[in-house]
């Protein structure tokens, strides 16, 4: 029997991607769609790629219209999810694709977001140690940030296996959809095409504490993360190039073994054959993760690289995967590991 | 009961797209994959986005390895399909994504391809008048060219309704995957990014006679087509801007009515609401077609514009749709009308 | 002795390109820069590519700050140039990169812009018949629109030589900078990358009457133009694919001869060798125009294609070229015919 | 009096860029152009953006045709420069844009290139400590690699000032022109557009020892470099994100001061104002370098980021700049700090 799902914030990129995936989910029936500034408009004018929903009209995001659904996906600006979730009651599965409930340490939240901490929900990254168990039967899910998804999957096996020193350096390139649909001059096509540029340099990006949280948990000690995000001239995709000093005694073989073990039974993570490297095009539109790892002996560093689609595995795909676990559906239901390439 | 499908030419773009779609088809089991120059290699090294088939090894394209399948998709260089089809026998459904069997007039074939004509197979564009009937139960399908798919769908309603003069002017922009995967200097990323350029100008493109064939059939008279293809800096998609002089008495209303009638029951063609125009991103990776039409009163011309994904509806999606009809499956089975956007 | 030039609207794309070119002009000294909403900001924050002007502060656009210059370039929203020009007095050379003074027929202006017509200035397309003479010594220049520049240069030789019927069909692809720097959702990188889409279809684009004006003048009769602009996933460049029915007796040779004659002495227009076709990358950042022409005998049409950089030859380069003529400088001074490719 | 310059390897990207710059150089007259596989062809067919040289015919690369020039630019596959240079005699200025003479340590060369070391020439990165002096009057110049240019300029000030520990981590994104013009499947536009991917991971990229050489010289101790290059969907540009552990006592102020001092008199390096970050679009086609630096206190790392055009400052612009110094011309002659943006 299908569950009925509402999407709050259906006019943005995260909401649109959630709908794209939910339309293909055999156990989901799409309920109310909301979008504040676009309330009253047809979805076909805002998300013309979602052909089957072209005539759906967006409602305003109120507790009343969201009531009566089994699942509610929230794609709202940060700070708005708590109030909505509270009104929905404890029996509704609320899947928050925003940041509000990802961080465990209120001090982290306050430092990076400048507002009171709303709480912590089970974290929607099943591939982490203990990740699935935390989601089973849960009625609240905090979907990870796109960068933390890519970075945590690239590096946690090295930390979990005790192979890496507690200082990671991460440079990640993201497609522009990660910056959202609100029009700003620096996100214009004229500005981004043909250009690479960094932002949030020096430790200021809000996804940094989330990476630290995940990697520290895997390592059993506090890991520092130097994180530099860059904007790449492509609509989708994250390529995360991560490294950490190798602990003494690490070899290419022990490293490979740790990654093989970590991902042996993972349906969405593909540890590439040796010599092949991730490419974001290969996971375009899919929930798959490509990972590869190398040991740079001369520099003494472990290099782990992952590619995800920031909107799919990095946001809405991770949300649906987590929903599947929470509701007891097969984890892969409605999700694909096949990229749209070239 | 599933049918077993082989793909000959699995390392190229058309073959890869066929596999992407067949993997999602509930009634198809993927059989042998072949690729001549890449025979012996794993598909994962050649088509890394097709994760579930990563360990499949390509065979050489021989009648022996293709035998024993219910369906064989051919993605071969032109001129090679006839020999393969002959060996497969009359009971195997052969779906040719190449050009060999598209043209009815041997003179057209010889003029544009410079070799003897192999014959004519039922034409895989079900949306054309009489298109479905020709495919039902057929064991041979000639999949249309990508440009003719886009152009014929944009213009045939005007011709079928007797609204357009028999001279069409078409300028179409195609993503680079339409030019194939064989590496050539002018197809390098360095050359195509940031650049638009035409090719095959002046009536020389091989898809021209196919457009003329389709539009003339709809019009009931010989239609001339001035066709200029252009290469656009994107991997996928065709935007076809087509026009023809309006016959006397044409109005915006009569034009709209003709298009509404032509596409009323079409599952894959979406005539956009007035004021909205096609975009290739909206149909990226999907089998949908976006169409819009306008009457330019000052110039006296009908402007009809379509957007397709050249690899999906323009090649492998059209192939699967036609296969569904030929085998008696629901026409939409395994195909999506949802684009991967942004 | 250098002339002193001000640029009003220096924070936008046209103003920025004017500055890029004027910085390289040996007879120009850059004076005041203005920008209304950005007044008070440093140019380095708005146009970081104009390194030598990084510390310049934008003034508000007032007659006072613009006074005292030999030349004033206007890159203002349409409807604002007349008031500014009036205040500058008749001895200042005013080069308007906006639309206000391009059209001769007030009815055209009112139909397409919906406001009273401000007048007509000498038209800055020296390559047109009589074009240079109109600019020599002039103190007012109306810089053509980017599309009309590309289209007029592609087609006027055929009309001037009496080879083409009076109905032209134009489909042009433009880089996104043609749509300006004001942020709008459909111009986001996420939306335009990987996508082609038309706009202003059916005769509504404001550059249409300007094309008709130019081609009709060349033809000596009223030419209709069916014009469809499309947005291409690149920051710069226009590829204009233009065609018209050939008059009786036209041959490939007579056509080629007409184009060779028209461009024989043109420093910026490069009629390509036969068999080679324009590409926007080849003229990226340059004032050059690539043109090629073909006769499609089967369709009975002349196909003329041009490539320009919409910001250079299509806007600020055309402006500087016209300024050179008006001030008696060598026409090519400070301008390049070398594109930045790949 | 102008010098006469030949370019060997004029059909590739480095050779084409050298010609683009030399055409704009007031003291250079362009002599013979060579290109082995393309000998006999017109340059207009191979480099259509170099309009003024369209009718030049490529010669074969022989000592005879290169004789009689004041300067010879070599854009040859590695391993071929020594033989050519030897024949040219000691009075000709030979500027090698290939790798052959960059490395000082023969062991480095042999390890990374697998052939005998040809020697070491004065290194064409004038901004390095002592860099200019080494070039003055020299008749041989080894132009740096594109990545080492970007990385060395980003990091040497921190090392020269004793602020950084001797382990650097570099992740750089390059436009595809860095991979050259020889057509390979993974460089097709269809493959690179919309995709980011790494290559040469784990210390294997040939530019690594060159970075180590430069940074170690600045630091006065052996610096390790973990270098990961990535291919970005753009034709030009390198964004180098570099970091190193900060030594004790480093502050944001001391870091900024070191960079201000290092670049105070540099005509091509622009240390951006605080809060502004490099973008490759800003230096497109120019010889400028944008640099910014930050201190990530939480991670204890210095983050230095640079943007260059890989073909200009990263190859041919650096070559011309070094030629200017060697010949006693003003260093900036014929070179621009203005990018072509957007």
Q: State the helix count of chain A.
A: 11
- CATH homologous superfamily caption of the largest domain in chain A: Dihydrodipicolinate Reductase, domain 2
Please summarize the sheet with the most strands of chain A: 7 strands, mixed
Multimeric status of the protein: homotetramer
Strand order of the largest sheet of chain A: 7-8-6-9-12-11-10
CATH top level assignment of the largest domain in chain A? Alpha Beta
N-C termini distance of chain A: 37 Å
How many domains, in number, for the residues of chain A?
2
Poorly predicted runs of chain A are none
- CATH architectural label of the largest domain in chain A: 2-Layer Sandwich
- Report the portion of residues of chain A in β strands: 15-25%
Shape of chain A: globular
Rg of chain A (C-alpha, Å): 19 Å
Overall mean pLDDT of chain A stands at 97
Notes on the protein architecture:
The structure is a homotetramer of 342-residue chains. Chain A has 342 residues and is an alpha/beta fold. The first copy, chain A, folds into 2 domains: 156 residues, Rossmann fold (3-Layer(aba) Sandwich), CATH 3.40.50.720; 164 residues, Dihydrodipicolinate Reductase, domain 2 (2-Layer Sandwich), CATH 3.30.360.10. The first copy, chain A, is 29% helix and 21% strand. In chain A, 64% of the residues are buried. The mean pLDDT of chain A is 97. At the B-C interface, strand 6, strand 7, strand 8, strand 9 and strand 11 of B face strand 6, strand 7, strand 8, strand 9 and strand 11 of C.
């Amino acid at each position: 029997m299908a569950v009925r799902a509402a999407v709050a914030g259906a006019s943005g990129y995260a909401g649109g991607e959630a709908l794209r995936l939910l339309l293909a989910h055999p156990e989901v029936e799409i309920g109310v769609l909301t979008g504040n500034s676009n309330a009253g408009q047809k979805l076909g004018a805002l998300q013309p790629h979602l052909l089957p929903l072209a005539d759906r009209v967006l409602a305003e995001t109120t507790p009343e219209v969201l009531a009566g659904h089994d699942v509610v996906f929230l794609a709202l600006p940060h700070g708005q999810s708590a109030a909505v979730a509270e009104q929905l009651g404890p029996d509704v599965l609320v899947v928050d694709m925003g940041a509000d409930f990802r961080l465990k340490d209120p001090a982290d939240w306050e430092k990076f977001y400048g507002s009171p901490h709303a709480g912590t929900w089970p974290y929607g990254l099943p591939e982490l140690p203990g990740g699935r168990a935390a989601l089973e039967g849960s009625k609240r899910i905090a979907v990870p940030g796109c960068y933390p998804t890519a970075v945590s999957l690239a590096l946690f096996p090295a930390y979990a296996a005790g192979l890496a020193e507690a200082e990671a350096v991460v440079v990640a390139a993201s497609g522009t959809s990660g910056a959202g649909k609100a029009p700003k001059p620096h996100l214009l096509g004229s500005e981004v095409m043909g250009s690479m540029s960094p932002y949030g340099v020096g430790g200021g990006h809000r996804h940094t504490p989330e990476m630290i949280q995940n990697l520290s948990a895997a390592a059993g000690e506090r890991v520092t993360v130097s994180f530099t995000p860059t904007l790449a001239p492509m609509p989708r995709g994250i390529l995360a190039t991560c490294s950490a000093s190798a602990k003494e005694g690490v070899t290419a073989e022990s490293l490979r073994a740790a990654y093989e073990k970590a991902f042996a039974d993972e349906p969405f993570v593909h540890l590439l054959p040796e010599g092949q490297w991730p490419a974001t095009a290969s996971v375009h539109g899919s929930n798959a993760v490509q990972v590869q790892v190398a040991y740079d002996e001369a520099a003494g560093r472990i290099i782990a690289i992952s590619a995800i689609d920031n909107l799919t595995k990095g946001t809405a795909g991770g949300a649906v995967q987590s929903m599947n676990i929470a509701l007891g559906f097969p984890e892969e239901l409605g999700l694909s590991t096949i990229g749209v390439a070239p």
